[in-house]
Design goal:
The chain is of the alpha/beta class. It has a single domain, classed as Rossmann fold, CATH 3.40.50. It has two helices and five strands; from the N terminus they run αβββββα. It has a three-stranded parallel beta sheet, with no helix packed on it. It has a two-stranded antiparallel ribbon with strand order 3-4. It is globular and about 50 Å long.
């Protein structure tokens, strides 16, 4: 925000989320709704980070349809995207706390 970024928060009450996502340079989703964001909602070369997880058809899936990867310049899928980073940061914080104690 200090660099002039416009941040928009979309929730279940947003009437037409595509109005906001279609022009976004970066989309980060952590809703927990399977395939909530589809390829037609994302502009070409956007950076798309999926942090949401849910179950659909017996599989772990993200908020963002995997076909978005064909349009995005960078795409972090579920599973296998942001999860390993979360675990590594958890261990980093644990190691720092161990040094303090």
């Amino acid at each position: 925000m200090n660099q002039g970024a416009a941040v928009t928060i979309i929730d279940e009450n947003t009437a037409d989320p595509t109005v906001h996502t279609i022009d976004a340079d970066i989309i980060i989703s952590g809703v927990g709704e399977p395939n909530l964001i589809t390829a037609d909602m994302v502009k070409d070369n956007a950076v798309v980070i999926d942090c949401g997880t849910s179950e659909a058809g017996g599989k772990i899936v993200g908020d963002i349809d995997p076909r978005v990867a064909d349009k995005a310049s960078l795409f972090s899928p579920v599973p296998g995207g942001i999860g390993p980073l979360t675990v590594s940061m958890l261990f980093k914080n644990l190691a720092e706390l161990a040094k303090i104690k």
